[in-house]
Amino acid sequence: PKRYLKAFKDLIACVRAMDADVLTVTNATTIKSTEYGDVYPMASKLRGYCVIIDNEKFKVKTLERRTGTTADASRLSSVFEQLFFRVKLYENKTADKMKTLLANIAADKALVKHDALVVIILSHGAEEGIYGTDGVTVALKTILEMFNNENCPQLIDKPKMFFTNACRGSYVSTRSMFKGSWFGQELATCLAESAHREHLNDLVTILVAKRVSERIGKIDGQFSKQAIETHIRGSVKKVYFNPGLYLEN
């Protein structure tokens, strides 16, 4: 019966969340200097919001359940909490609800006191954008524009980091039923192990990309390619998370 199948799938989801690697973020010893203007300030006790949209179950038959995504959301939530971000986790949202909740975040007056913003979207995707649970896409451009200087002046001159882990076009997002996606695993691991000494651009473009590429190299098939998209909005300054350290206001 369908109700037993649903109960079994929900049980598996709980096991996946529990099975997510427990990562401890390595603390920095000093706060990276902003004296020369090439490093973003990142020393508030509350760095900002980390918004995670995790779409696992879809209402259209053409989009299968994203098994393993619960582990990604759990792992990334833990890491960003340790980096002093306030995590806002939203699960299984339609396209309209995704846009609404992001617009509400962009309008939040508290952002003016924050150092940064992180947005992570875990879902299916297509060339047109990222799928809501109703099978309707939201263009990545639309999401980025919500947080530009005109629509979100509270974050002017502050880093806005967007991570999407969604299959796009002919590529697939490689995901383990229990451990989550390769990108989710490696992003969380690299942040935990190296954010105390490396800036974000090097973390993502060198460390994370290298680890994911090594995994890809072990798979046969031309479509075995992890779909990774990272967008950092702001200037060309470096983003150091300075884990474990903050300055009293």
Helix content: 25-40%
Structural class: alpha/beta
What number of domains?
1
End-to-end gap: 58 Å
Mean pLDDT: 84
Looking at the overall shape, the CATH architecture is 3-Layer(aba) Sandwich
CATH class descriptor: Alpha Beta
The outline comes out as globular
The side-by-side strand order for the widest beta sheet comes to 2-1-3-7-10
Write the layout of secondary structure elements.
Blueprint: H1 2-19, E1 48-54, H2 69-82, E2 85-91, H3 95-106, E3 116-122, E4 125-126, E5 129-131, E6 137-138, H4 140-146, E7 160-165, E8 175-176, E9 180-181, H5 182-194, H6 200-216, E10 229-233
Parallel strand pairs: 1-2, 1-3, 3-7
Antiparallel strand pairs: 4-5, 5-6, 7-10, 8-9
Helix pairs in contact: 1-2, 2-5, 5-6
Brief description of this entry?
By secondary structure, this protein is of the alpha/beta class. Helix content is 33%, strand content 17%. It has a single domain (2-233), classed as 3-Layer(aba) Sandwich (Rossmann fold).
